[in-house]
Here is the input.
Amino acid sequence: MKQYYVYILKCSDNSYYTGVTNNIEQRLQYHQEGISPDSYTYTRRPVEVVFHTEFNDVNQAIAFEKQVKGWSRKKKEAIINDEWEKLPNLSKRRTPNK
Here is the structure.
């Protein structure tokens, strides 16, 4: 069965990059070598994998990647630190409705 990975890289400028792949080692090498000058990580190398999770279904992996890409830095850091229980509180609206 094929595995798919959603991963988060920490870039040299301290930013995070989220992606999806079916070969995490090869994808990390691709980011490290800077093969594509148009990629987000090209000018932010070196990068390191700080989080990854596996999926058996590519559609679930893509959906989770899109979800994480929309998250705040604090939410990403919660899953990086394996603090999934913090996500509900980090999802609460911080400003009152008007």
The domain at 4-91 is CATH 3.40.1440.10 (GIY-YIG endonuclease).
